[in-house]
Design goal:
It is built from 8 helices and 15 strands. The protein is of the alpha/beta class and 286 residues long. It binds adenosine-5'-triphosphate and zinc ion.
Length: 286
């Protein structure tokens, strides 16, 4: 029987939607019924397991799953024998230390001898050990923000994205302990056949990621401006230049980086470009 790549994704939570979206963008089609724990892709030798995110590092270490999509924060916390093989750019957040708003805080040494409530005992312990600060750790699995107000610790270490949850619980962010995003993990001992499947999937993921960072741009320009515009827009090899029906005008097609495209648009308009269209790219293979 053909080997299947076993992919662990979060069953429900902040990682799930983007994880499944990514797999679908990579061309995998599968049913994901609400209470399903496992499903098989129709058109790629893969099986998808729906698990709690905290369990994914262990399952990958044990090779119950071959790869997993999980937050880097969880990977670092669990300290399993697994490797990050791709960063995915979603579920971006940071793990921070926060203290009650009114408390004085003059650097990590202010925490010496205090208790910290967190779901990330290993990460925070290592962070403070490295800075020579000794603390007690209260490990709790959720609702960490309310801990100080109910007497469970003088500070917390928890995930922050905008900081509004901290504020509404009367807390103030004082240190960033780590930044995190979703990643793909695999066992360093992944077997050869599985590694080949994984690499096939990683290649597709990289194409999807590249496409997301780039846009296809079409514009019209007077022939006199074509050279300057082509110099400005390197594209994949070099831009395509086609004559327009209107005498003296050309159409230029190219690929631009999402990040500097607004700057480019201004320069292009200055050079006389008109009818600029920017469209998303679905996949990009260089
Ligand atoms: P599970 O039930 O699977 O244990 P959970 O409650 O532990 O889920 P979620 O809140 O769904 O986890 O978060 C999953 C991951 O998403 C986190 O480990 C982190 O990497 C990321 N994350 C958490 N909160 C945010 C946020 N506010 N913004 C962006 N990413 C976040
Ligand atoms: Zn979890």
């Amino acid at each position: 029987m053909e080997k299947l790549l076993k992919i662990a994704v979060q069953k429900s939570g902040r990682l799930q939607d983007n994880s499944l979206k990514l797999l679908k963008e990579c061309g995998l089609s599968f049913n994901n019924g609400k209470n399903q724990l496992k499903t098989q892709a129709f058109n790629f030798p893969a099986e998808i397991y729906f698990l709690r995110d905290d369990d994914i590092p262990q399952y990958v270490e044990d090779r119950v799953a071959d790869i997993g999509i999980v937050g880097e924060n969880v990977v670092v916390e669990k300290e399993k024998n697994i490797e990050i093989v791709e960063r995915l750019g979603f579920a971006k957040c940071r793990l921070s230390l926060a203290v009650p708003k009114a408390d004085t805080y003059e650097g990590v040494s202010s925490l010496e001898g205090k208790n910290i409530a967190t779901s990330y005992p290993n990460i925070i312990k290592k962070f403070l050990d490295e800075r020579g600060v000794k603390v007690g750790i209260h490990e709790i699995s959720g609702s960490v923000e309310i801990a100080p107000s109910i007497g469970l610790g003088a500070a917390i270490c928890d995930i922050v994205s905008t900081g509004s949850t901290l504020l509404s619980n009367g807390l103030r962010e004082v240190e960033t302990v780590m930044t995190s995003e979703a990643v793909i993990v695999a066992s360093p001992d992944i077997e050869e056949e599985k590694a080949a499947l994984m690499n096939k999937l990683l290649f597709r993921i990289q194409s999807v990621k590249k496409a997301q960072n780039n846009k296809y741009m079409l514009l019209n320009a007077p022939n006199s401006a074509v050279d300057s515009i082509v110099k400005m827009l390197p594209g994949m090899k070099s831009p395509t230049v086609l004559p327009l029906g209107t005498e003296g005008w050309s159409s230029i097609h190219t690929v631009v980086d999402e990040n500097d495209f607004w700057d480019r648009i201004d320069q292009l308009k200055e050079l006389g470009a008109q009818g600029i269209l920017v469209v998303p790219i679905e996949k990009m293979i260089l």
